[in-house]
Fold this protein.
Amino acid sequence: MTPATVASWIDQGHLKGHKTPTGRRRVASVDLVAFLSTHGMSVPAELLVMPDRQVVVVVEDDRAYLSALVRMIQREVPELDVVAAATGMDGLLEIGRVDPDLVILDYALPDLNAVQVVERLQDRLAAPVMIVTGGMPEKAEIELRALGVRAIVNKVDGMEVVIEAMRRALQTRKVAVA
């Protein structure tokens, strides 16, 4: 099936979804699973909810860094499900879709910065947010800390440091939820 077919199903009301301000169509994963199941179509494995697995959303606009970080997380922590997004808005949509256990967020994104993303998540997300950055203004760090961000990691420290900070954040969340 093509994206045009799916868009047509949404536009005709066959598949529950909505159009974003940029003209993209969005469908909640539960609605897509229900639609596929009802119509006898196979459901992709990534749409099947695995409640015992933790989910991390990584929001990073540098495609090479994003790809490398996702691969490293999958290799180092294979029990995690990783969802990737390349813009702040796409990140917000994915966060709303999967309700992650952790958000790893680049500071400088093409459409929003980390402060703007975290502000939009206030009172909507119980998961911790970890900032991974190549640098940011001191004022932004103060604002992020005031918004509840506890972990800020510099990319130059290496992906191993990012992975370790991610493990600590997930462990802290697991203990807090238990």
